[in-house]
Amino acid sequence: MAQVVSVNLSEHRGEPKHPVPVVELRVHHGIVGDAHAGDWHRQISLLAEESVDTMRASCPVSLNPGIFAENINTSGIDLRHLPIGARLAVGDAEIEVTQIGKECHSDCAIKKAVGRCVMPTEGIFAVVIREGTVRAGDKIDLLGDLQ
Hints:
The chain is mainly beta. It has a single domain (3-146), classed as Beta Barrel (M1 Pyruvate Kinase, Domain 3), CATH 2.40.33.20. It contains three helices and eleven strands, in the order E-E-E-E-E-H-E-E-E-H-H-E-E-E. The strands form two sheets. Strands 2-1-6-5-9-8-7-11 form an eight-stranded mixed β-sheet. The longest helix is centred in the middle third of the chain and has 8 residues, at 49-56.
């Protein structure tokens, strides 16, 4: 079963996010209180815990949830192979995938601290389609023809 491992936010761009008990998702906004929120195509970032696990053995720092500036850590779903436009029910909210990976800028604080960043190749970005709340332990369902 696919599920949420952690929900994270940060008050400022360019810094790791920190786990919180629950996040509120809003249409045309993203996560309430997060520095990356706004009416754009990368309102929410997701990263599979399996991707973080591949780095844990060789990384000199602790890789806590949010270290790669991801909003939602997941398990049991192959995020990086979802197509653009895929819709996910997460908690009581719904999101739509808008981007796979991203360009990593050279002065990225996460890359400096960890040595490399998995978000450029394994993170995904989404917009909010249906408002709701998300917390660790919530189920993730792939909606539509991709089930």
